[in-house]
Amino acid sequence: MFKTDKHRINDKIRAQEVRLVGENVKVDIYPLAKALEIANELGVDLVEISPNATPPVCKAMDYKKFVYEQKKREKAIKAK
To answer: How far does Cα 3 stand from its chain's mean position?
Structure first.
């Protein structure tokens, strides 16, 4: 089970415009609909990684893989 309250993804993002970053993506400011379209074409999720920025920063990435990598990092930190 994922903590979906940590990050807004896809349709949960509320901003009108977002700064889009990620692999195979031209970093720029896009309207939300266009950013979602780009992420959809790439077959990945649009994840809001910096909601307090102006405009919010969103990354086109596989969200499940992102959460998995984060948990792995947290576990490694706890082990140390």
So the answer is: 14
Contact residues for 18 (Cβ-Cβ < 8 A; gap 6+): 29, 30, 32, 35, 46, 48, 55, 56, 57, 58
DSSP assignment string, 6-59: TS-BGGG---SEEEEEETT---EEEEHHHHHHHHHHHT-EEEEEETTSSSPEEE
pTM, rounded to two decimals: 0.78
Q: Which helix (H) or strand (E) holds 63?
A: helix 63-79
Q: Is 4 helix (H, G, I), strand (E, B) or coil?
A: coil
Instruction: Return per-residue pLDDT of the chain as tens, 80 residues.
Output: 454 457 899 999 999 999 999 888 999 999 999 999 999 999 999 999 999 999 999 999 999 998 898 899 999 998 87
